[in-house]
Each structure stands twice: as C-alpha cells, then as structure tokens.
Amino acid sequence: MRLPLLALMVPAICLAQTPAQPRLVLEEPHFDFGRIGPSAVVTHRFKASNAGNAPLTITQLKPSCGCTSTLVGQSTLAPGESTQLEVTFNATGHRGMNRSAVEVDSDDPTNPVQSLNFEAEVMQDVDPVAQEVRFDDLRPRDRRKVSVKLTSQTGQPVHVVSADLSEAPWLGVTTLEEGNDVHVEFELVSQQLPPGKLSRVDTVALHLVNPNPSVVQLRVLWKRRDPVQVSPARVTWAAAAGAELRAALTLKNPEHKPFRILSARTSNPLIQVAGIAPKGAVVQKLQVLLSKDAKPGDYNEKAFLTLDLPGKPELEIRVLASLR
To answer: In CATH, what number does 126-224 get?
Structure first.
C-alpha cells in the first residue's frame, strides 16, 4: 500500500519546486499598413501581455531601419497585465514594398527576444516604368533615343517641369504627354561623350508636378562599343608540364581603323607575348607563350597590352593554365 502513496507524492513535490516565471506574449505580432503615400508617416500600437506568474520587465526595443518604436505605458508588467508598443514608419525615401521589424527584449527566461513585424507598400505619386535607361554598344557617330514612361498614381496628369542635365550635357530630354502619364525621351549623341571613357552612369533628376512638386531620379547607363575585339577572350591551357605551350590571339578594331600595339607585359615571367608588329593594322595577330620551365600546378595570370587607341590605352587578358 506504500508504493501508490509515494507515486502520488512525487509529482506534488516537483510541482511545488517549479519557480514562478514571467512570459511575454505579443498579440498579433504582424501588421500590414497597406498602401501609403510617399511622404506618409503611419503608426500602429501592438499589445504586449505578461501571461506568466511573475513580474515581467521589457528591457529594450530595437527597431530596424525605417521605423521608430516607443513603449507606451509601464515597462514592468504584473502577471495578467498588458501594455502597448507603438511603432512609427516614415515612408520618405522609401518605395515599393517595405518590411521591417522591432526586436523586443525582456526578462522572459524562455523567449527573451521576440519580434514585431510590419509591412507597407509605398506608392509614389509618379511611378517610372523603369529606373534606368541604357545605351549599349555605342558607335562614334551614333545618335540614339530611348524613352521611359512615367505613370500617374494619383489620377492627376503628370507634368515634367524641367530636367537637370548639368552632369550629362551629351543628353537631351523631350516629353510627350499621354492622358495622365508622360513619356520622357532621352537622346544621346556619341560625339559629345567625354573622350577616353568607355562607359559611365549618369543620374538625371526630373522635376515634376503631380499634384505636388516632386523629383524622380533616373539612371542613364551608356557604354561605347569596345574599340578592340579579342579572340579568344582568354587564353587557357590544360596540358603536361615540360613543353612550351603556344596560343594564338587576335585583336580587331570593329570600326576598321588601324591601331598599334606599343608594348606587352605579363604578371609572370614564364609567360610572354610574341608577334607584335611595328606597324598599325585593323587586325593584329599575336601569340601567347608559356615556358617549358613552368612546373606542374595551376596558373592564373594576366597579360597587359599597351595600345594607341583612344579610350583603350591598355588591354588586359587573362591567361590560365593547368599543368600536370
């Protein structure tokens, strides 16, 4: 008869020894602000409760980028008490879908760190169909046009007041209104591009009214056609060590203009460039050599050719070898 009595007493003793603990509960820890304007400041209060059987202390709130957080009410909660955690999101400088979180630190021994999450879709008064304009493979006498559509999100017409082209005088801008939207056409003149540069990214600020003054910034990326076409794009060998290796290399000017190779150097003395002609030509044929003294192993080197072409003073070619 003693054994059943002991069996009943053991759980009772264990229960008596269980310490009182706080427990933080965040009710509905996710909130969706929905669609908001580009300059909106929105606020939401989350409810936090102590579902434990000991006092709970909220020690810190750590917001991520784009929001601020405030504890409304007391930081220490008795069992069963609640408080509110206020989160504010400022949409200025944001666009599209934004998701952020606030870390809530407390003395809850089981879950000392919990998160409040929110999301908001920031709608612009004017939404560009594309954020950048590209002009690729430009030739010396090219004159190209690319257009971007600016779509009204307010139901009111978009008006482009001006375009800041001070940093990109080789660009021109014209506009064509279509209902509430507007097409912005960029024209680029290759002959006006800065000499010696093959590519660049320009930022153009469009000053708009719809219905309030605003600025839309677009990136304009342009790239000249490379004045030298290299074949192959890189030199590679996979062979046994102990023998000299050779690879043909062809350089061509796509505009059919003669050019000269002034000099050549390599990152490893075991690699040489041969066949440099003293005269200019539209096509230059070279050979890249790997010495027979190269030991087994992997090589990742470069050859550098100095040219007399405007915009391409030096050409870099990768040279790879795997010798066994």
So the answer is: 2.60.40.10
